[in-house]
Amino acid sequence: MLQLYMPLHFLGFVYREIKHSLADMERMFTLLEENKEIQDKPDAWILDVKNAAIHFNHINFSYEPNRQILFDVSFDIPAGQNIAVVGHSGSGKSTLARLLFRFYDVQSGCIQINDQDIRDVTQQSLRSAMGIVPQDTVLFNDSIYYNIAYGRPDATTDEVYAAAKSAHIDDFIESLPDKYETIVGERGLKLSGGEKQRVAIARTILKNPAMLIFDEATSALDSHSEKRIQVELKRIAKNRTTLTIAHRLSTIADADQILVMDHGRIIERGTHQQLLAMNDQYARMWELQRQKEADQNSPLILTAS
Ligand code: ATP
Fold it and tell me: What residue stretches are annotated with the ABC transporter domain (predicted)?
């Protein structure tokens, strides 16, 4: 009974996490095999991801009847570009990522990748083309090696080591009692937020996906870790089609385009400079951040999350 209870208990835990964040949607699907509400069409084809360009086309969406969350949301992520989404807590930022990953289907409108509606392709091909670095990575109760290799189970040992090195987590792993065989996760060694995020980055580097979703951590890591992680994220996002859900404006000022969301609608869009010049919502958020930074002399969270 205990043997059955533990996995079920764990699945419940993972599911609760995912309901409220993007934490490891990839893993959720593997564990549950499939989401019963989302089915492949009988003639679903394999997504063509070459130079993936993403198009959100007049999306309306609600999780529950009578409570609409997204209202006529349209935007493009041209191939290789990074589009960042900012806005207050609950404005619908993570929902965009959940829909792109096809955790739910939209009620109207469509999401296209290279002109292919994501409902027309296999879920497997869609999700294997997408890497997610969530704000809080839930680790398997398994070795740290397994947790990284999960990004691409057929990777060689050298490739796993190289991914750990690129994510700047190799020195840390070498310092652990059993090195790569150290058990981590809920019942193993507890890792800090930054260490977990670096495991997620290593996993993503190994997976080498055409598209990326970054869900920036809401709680600031120490500024040294933060800077290193930001550098790493920028490096892996280079030339990949990327959706960044941002909580701190300072980290996305160089995004190709920034979308400002409010109550499920895009209320402003443009580059950092264009948005500042508009002197409206984004400019106010930026000013607020600047003031707080001056007060606290530390990076801060901007979206009132
Ligand atoms: P945050 O910055 O706090 O992460 P967000 O902008 O990413 O917020 P979303 O997670 O997209 O916001 O949530 C948008 C709205 O949808 C919120 O009102 C939230 O309560 C609601 N919501 C999110 N997930 C679900 C769900 N699984 N079922 C019902 N409502 C949900």
Answer: 54-288
